[in-house]
Amino acid sequence: MLRYPGLVMTAAGLMAASLAHANQNQLDLQQNPDFWATQLGNYQGNRYSQLDQINRDNVQDLRAQWQFSTGVLRGHEGGPLYVGDGRLYIHTPFPNKVFALDLEDEGRIVWSYEPDQDSRVIPVYCCDTVNRGLAYADGKLFLNQGDNTVIALDAESGELLWEAENGDHTEGETMTMSPLVVHDKVIVGNSGGEFGVRGHLTAYNVETGEMEWRGYSQGSDDEVLLDPETTTMLGEPIGEADLGISTWPEGEWERGGGAPWGWVTYDPELDLIYYGTGNPGTWNPEQRTIDGEPADNKWAITVFARDPNTGETKWVYQKVPFDEWDYDGVNENQLIDVEFEGEQRKGLAIIDRTGFGFLMDRESGELLVAEKFAPETNWADSYDLETGRPNVSEEFSTFRQGVDVNTTNICPTAMGAKNMQPSAYSPETGLLYAGINRICMNYEPFETEYVAGQPYVGATLTMMPAPTQEGDMEGRMGSFIAWDPVAGETVWEIDERFAVWSGALATAGDLAFYGTLEGYMKAVDIESGEELWRFKTPSGIIGNINTFQHEGKQYIGVLSGVGGWAGIGLAAGLEDPEEGLGAVSAFSALKDYTELGGILTVFALPDA
Amino acid sequence: MILTRTPRQLGVDVLGTLGIMFLMATGVTAQAAGNEVEKASSQPVAGPGDYTVINGKVDQGTYDGYIAYTRSCMACHGPDGLGSSFAPSLIQAAERRSFGDFSHTVASGLEIQPGRVMPSFADDEYVLNNIENIYSYMKARGAGDLGRGRPKVIEEEVAANKNNGEQD
Questions:
Q1: What is the per-residue pLDDT across A85-141, written as a single tens digit (0 to 9) for each?
Q2: Which residues cross the membrane (chain B) (predicted)?
């Protein structure tokens, strides 16, 4: 099955001889600053590059070298991989094409692969037919198809090596996330939180595609793969058995969402993987109560730390018990080492959907910091660090306000103060860099009935730009921020017209990069946030900015191609709460700035 | 109250009732201000595309149209019928297309540009039973009689009053 790994490795000119585990291969690749071998740059999810050929002093000379159209419309998330063999590997949204492009021949197509998928999967995606990218290890590429097929391709030839069925789109399941390879396993999660699916994280053998373990997001402890005696919650054993059933009204856990559709990160020393689960089934909180009172709906919106070998859960932390706003907990868990109150800690930082920036101890699962990075956040005043629970504000509780009541001006919106767009972390500055959303909402729950394969939402919402304060850009719907995860403070902030939906990049060249929904790629001074360079790509950017070096030349690659939830929600502009019926919105409509189209743009310095 | 899973009755009964209402209301001129009583159909007789808006509230059928749209179409066609990055505004579509064309597209799907798929809803009874309601909702939006967001339903008495010509 393992086809030409030797050949690939030779081409890569790698030092690594020990290919015992895909883990080792991936680890070696990501430790070489020339490569961008996994979507988040490294296992820790840092999206940081030690390359500094492109830097603060010369970035104004950065030029587009070549562009490549993927031929696919709709939202392009994720980014190119470079593993040292002179090619870029990219993917597209549905139909999930894969291309190997020759970096030395301005993107000539070395091979391409297009899966044969049932197009009836298209309407069961909640928010565009996105895909967050390929994974690589040991000469193989791994892709999660929209129709729930996980595949392995031979990176050399593009030949299909194996496929595995991970779910059923007629039940509303899809796949959009990027797999992560750890040891000899490829780890994947399903999507479908808006269709009442049951979330699960699954490991497949990299060689054979056989399922090794699956941990559900709710149900019995056996199926969640946790042990109430040993699995901890904020440092203490959970204690009670089967909370994944008992914290739901009768049978509701079976359609309890909790889809882990975001990023998975990994700590090779602790040998633990980290990821978060999505919203708990229907958006109507009333239907998730027990005896009319809020119930925790475990383990939705929960950070899981699991053993990648067995799937067993080391610790859990539920960020939002009893969700009332669709605050999926899937945002990336950045693994960073920090000094906290004079002590060195193995930290885990989250710029969360809820508007709060969390810092946890990734070994013990203790909560250390929870502060608002989006100051407009009002659904909760604060977090109780002892209990780990948010202090929910009654005024913005869609449950307390009631079914068929429109609860107004909740911040952030269901899109979250930050969605899937992954942040970057610079070990030099100790700061996180993230594109965020500045949007609020009115949310009205209504009773809904579960029908397999149909949306199971049960709330309608309208969105509007978050209120601004003096000095903010008028009507802005997004920002790019530098966040101090230990102090829990924003260090600087750049306002943007639209939500910033692209993945960030931080580099040793003292630069941070991000893309905008209008299609600009921007480079800013990592210390001050001052804009140093911009380039308008042909379509809005919801992909991630990746960097790598080939034959002494540093490149930056980005997929543009507007779409995703941002493309659905913002295309026509948002409602102006101040204006009456039929008035033209004063807020910008994305469709006035950009159109569809997947394009890869590759940048470099002209004389490098 | 479960509003969205009894489409068959709603489709038939509500439209039947509305038909009577609209016949009675024929001749009431549409008014520019959105919060007044409205009867704004291009056709004088009742049928798909008809709707009633009173003080921003709508008849049950138009409301069901909003819910059906939000459940089955919004994920592609954007909030409140406005269109998204990859699917066109259905408000405009309802203005330009006859009900026949509109419902034909919903039933059979459309794929002019590859990958920009309008799925066929031929197997989806819920949607099929709500096409008229969706069309009415879009017409109300297109005429500027109905704003964004989830509308309220006209209470029974008010509707009765309207039928009796006592409203306004």
A1: 999 999 999 999 999 999 999 999 999 999 999 988 988 888 889 999 999 999 999
A2: none
A132 in a labelled binding site: yes
Closest residue in chain A to residue B6, using alpha carbons only: A449
Q: Find residues 532-551 of chain A whose CB sits inside 8 Å of chain B.
A: 540
CB-based burial of residue A241 (10 Å sphere; 0-12 exposed, 13-18 middle, 19+ buried)? middle
Least CB-CB distance to A442: which of B75, B119, B149? B149
Q: What are phi and psi of A257, to 5 degrees?
A: 60, -125
Query: How many of the other CB atoms lie within 10 Å of CB of A164?
Result: 18
For residue A385, the Cα-to-chain-centroid distance in whole angstroms is: 25
In chain B, what are the domains? 37-161 (1.10.760.10)
Length of chain A: 608
Query: What domains does chain A contain, in order, with CATH numbers?
Result: 1-33 (no CATH), 138-330 (2.40.128.630)
Q: Which residue out of A287, A447, A568 would a mutagenesis test of the B interface target, given it has the greatest number of B Cβ atoms within 10 Å? A: A568
- Cα A380 from Cα A374, distance rounded (Å): 12
Tokens of A370: 């929870």
Q: Under an 8 A CB cutoff, do A455 and B82 touch? A: no
Q: What is the ipTM of this complex?
A: 0.74
Rounded Cα–Cα distance for residues A259 and A277 (Å): 5
DSSP annotation of A525 reads E
Q: What percent of chain A has pLDDT over 90?
A: 87
Contacts of B38 (CB under 8 A, 6+ apart): B30, B31, B51, B52, B53, B54, B140, B143, B145
φ, ψ for residue A535, nearest 5 deg = -145, 135
Interval A190-202: pLDDT, tens: 999 999 999 999 9
Rounded to the nearest angstrom, the minimum Cα separation between A571 and chain B is 5
Q: Which residues of A touch B83 (CB under 8 A)?
A: 571-572, 591
**Whole-number Å distance between alpha carbons of A150 and A134:** 11
